[in-house]
């Protein structure tokens, strides 16, 4: 039941909060550094479904974690402009009290603003008409009402704006073919993509994993089309680990943000056998199969690189940025695989810097040029 959502913090909600809270200080640091060079002194955090701030157990939810991090950093507390909203007036009052009770709350240059209201079309229009300072935008509805592509794009459209949204897969999967919620599904995926999903799901032979793959793919492509070039989905499973329940999507227009978030997600995901990585959190098991392109054994990376870069010369940074999107591998794994390809004689590595000493075996500096045979 919705009214009991904040009674107890589940493992999944704890991981979700940790993913967002782990990204926040890195995001703040990158944006603050850019503002020092190019101007600007405010960074927004917006949460439109904020809740009361704490669970009944006293555990902190995302708003408290974010504001505490800002308080703890002298630079962040001068920049953060936090805006929280919830449609439940009781939640709003409790969140205000929880925030104001934090040690160091008065050190914030901009006290958090807490509002009571629906995340409806009126709010979306207001956000669309606003030119936002750099913003980390978090959308965590209980279901799918209020969760639309327009809402995400209303903030993501501006420079330095990244978005997290919690995607209730269980309810969306049931809603795709339900005529009663067609307007909600159209607003979530866009009419064309929602219609495509309905047509696919008319095939009653589709397996549950195939349905999930189509839903996540269409959501990702819809985000790509509106400018969210870099999308990372992170799957949450049921307590027994038998079925997917939610996905946390991260969306950005910048590769650096994608790289940072991929590293964070990798630290929270469960690894399967065969050296594969699932971009998921499953409380019950670390051996569940996955269905995304973000799941592949490390043994597949070398052949992919040899195929995709055949006859080309690039450095590690170029290879990682061009090749890693949509794959589970992080920079360190690319470095390891490339060094292995060198040992196998499949690539040549040269240092273009004049006068440099011979490169030490097992090292791969950013300047090294890698030529694929």
Query: What's the Cα radius of gyration?
Result: 22 Å
CATH architecture annotation name of the largest domain: 3-Layer(aba) Sandwich
H/E topology pattern: HEHEHEHEHEHHHHEEHEHEHHEE
Q: What is the count of DSSP helices, taking H or I runs of 4+ residues?
A: 13
Low-confidence stretches: 1-9, 272-277, 282-292
Largest pleated sheet: 8 strands, mixed
CATH homologous superfamily of the largest domain, by name? Vaccinia Virus protein VP39
**Helicity, in percent?**
40-55%
Q: What would the principal axes of the Cα set say about the shape?
A: globular
Mean pLDDT: 87
Strand order, sheet with most strands: 3-2-1-4-5-7-6-8
CATH topology of the largest domain: Rossmann fold
Number of strands: 11
Strand composition percent: 15-25%
Question: How many structural units, i.e. domains?
Answer: 2
**Structural category:** alpha/beta
CATH first level of the largest domain: Alpha Beta
Span from first to last CA?
A: 59 Å
Task: Explain what this protein looks like in three dimensions.
The chain is of the alpha/beta class. It has 2 domains: 2-281, 3-Layer(aba) Sandwich (Rossmann fold), CATH 3.40.50; 298-372, Arc Repressor Mutant, subunit A, CATH 1.10.10. Helix content is 41%, strand content 15%. The protein has helices at residues 11-38, 62-72, 89-100, 121-128, 149-156, 169-175, 182-189, 191-201, 208-225, 255-268, 301-308, 316-323, 331-343; strands at 43-47, 80-86, 113-116, 135-139, 162-167, 230-237, 244-252, 280-281, 313-314, 347-350, 369-372. The strands form 2 sheets. The chain has an 8-stranded mixed beta sheet with strand order 3-2-1-4-5-7-6-8, with helices on both faces. The protein has a 3-stranded antiparallel beta sheet with strand order 9-11-10. Helix 2 (62-72) links the parallel strand 1 (43-47) and strand 2. Helix 1 (11-38) runs parallel beside helix 2 and helix 4 packs parallel to helix 5. The longest helix has 28 residues, at 11-38. It is globular and about 65 Å long.
